[in-house]
């Protein structure tokens, strides 16, 4: 599984639900967005495919900044896109993203 990196929000991201996210993201994705302050804030969502609250929250925040510069750069990690498609925590062949971080 490869990580996709983007420098902009893909079309449709702000309105799609987690189950259909695979239609616009091929898998785990890191999205870098610029802001007035260059030091990025790192946000991770969908570490578990069946927990979509973070997706809904970040969509709301990003919609509120539509056509305005973010106050701070943002690096957004979107985790288990494939598991979200099936409403599952993770697929059997996927790592558990809560346990793969160094020092954990």
Question: What topology does this entry show?
Answer:
Elements: E1 4-6, E2 29-33, E3 35-45, H1 53-64, E4 70-78, H2 81-85
Strand percent estimate: 25-35%
Tell me the count of domains. Answer: 1
In angstroms, what separates the terminal alpha carbons? 21 Å
Extended strand count: 4
Secondary structure tally, helices = 2
Task: Please give the share of residues in helix.
Answer: 10-25%
Shape designation: globular
Give a quick account of the main beta sheet: strands, pairing sense, barrel closure: 4 strands, mixed
Uncertain residue ranges: none
Rg from C-alpha positions? Answer: 14 Å
Order of helices and strands: EEEHEH
Q: Main sheet: which strands, in order across?
A: 1-2-4-3
Mean pLDDT over all positions: 93
Q: Which secondary-structure class do the elements indicate? A: alpha/beta
Walkthrough of the structure:
The protein has 104 residues and is α/β, with parallel strands linked by helices. The chain has one domain (4-85). 16% of the residues lie in helices and 27% in strands. The protein has helices at 53-64, 81-85; strands at 4-6, 29-33, 35-45, 70-78. It has a four-stranded mixed sheet with strand order 1-2-4-3, covered by helices on one side. The chain is globular. The model has no long low-confidence stretch (mean pLDDT 93).
